[in-house]
Amino acid sequence: MGYALIEVRGQRVDVLCYDVINMKALGSNHAVKLKRIFDRMLELIDEYLPDELAIEAPFFGVNVQSMLKLGRAQGVAIAAALSRQIPYVEYAPTKVKQSVTGSGSATKEQVAHMLRQTLTLPPVAEASKFLDATDALAVALCHHYMKGNNVTASGGKSWGKFLAENPERVGASTGAGKKTSVKSVKE
Questions:
Q1: How far apart are the first and last CA of the chain?
Q2: Which among 43, 46, 132, 168 is annotated as catalytic?
Q3: Residues at the annotated binding site for Mg(2+)?
Q4: Binding-site annotation, residues
Q5: Cβ-Cβ contacts under 8 Å for 149 (sequence gap 6 or more)
Q6: What does the alpha-carbon distance between residue 73 and residue 67 come to, in Å, rounded to a whole number?
Q7: On the CB side of 98, how many CA atoms lie within 13 Å of its CA?
Q8: Secondary structure (DSSP) of 25-84
Q9: Which one of 19, 43, 46, 56 is the catalytic residue?
């Protein structure tokens, strides 16, 4: 299972950490693995004090048992956040890929490559080991983008962001000396 923590200040995004929780050494007992996820999530929450949790929504696969195990793991991560009063949001895998690469069908390798360019991450020697970590980083960046802090594909900022950054232009006169009022719009 991959995880990532980012810090956002204005338009600046800093990667605090990203890594994987390796479960192979824990054997085949699924309950032990779920406890490890819960414990590690609490460690990360207590160390970094995040404001929110963004998680990839469960996806439908061919193997029902794998899908159930993944859903349980995601539920444990969500429960850890909720136990510390941290709200969470879920994003579909295609939404995450599209927000980072522009294509909802991008491969894990393409997502990792785009993140290295976007966030100027150093190349990783064992890239395949870190694909789950870069996936988690992609979810965090997707969440940042979905909160209206992104630059759109055309290079322009969102309308809501423009209004927030230019309050003096919101009340610009229209017609015969009337002023227009604009309410903030959530994206």
A1: 30
A2: 132
A3: 56, 132
A4: 56, 132
A5: 8, 11, 161
A6: 10
A7: 8
A8: GGTT-HHHHHHHHHHHHHHHHHHH--S-EEEEPP---S-HHHHHHHHHHHHHHHHHHHHT
A9: 56
pLDDT in tens, 1-48: 899 999 999 889 999 999 999 888 898 999 999 999 999 999 999 999
Residues in the chain, total: 187
7 is catalytic: no
Q: Determine the longest span between alpha carbons in the chain, in angstroms.
A: 75
| Residue 124: Cβ-neighbour burial (10 angstroms; 0-12, 13-18, 19+) | middle
Q: Is 56 designated active site?
A: yes
Q: pTM for the whole thing?
A: 0.76
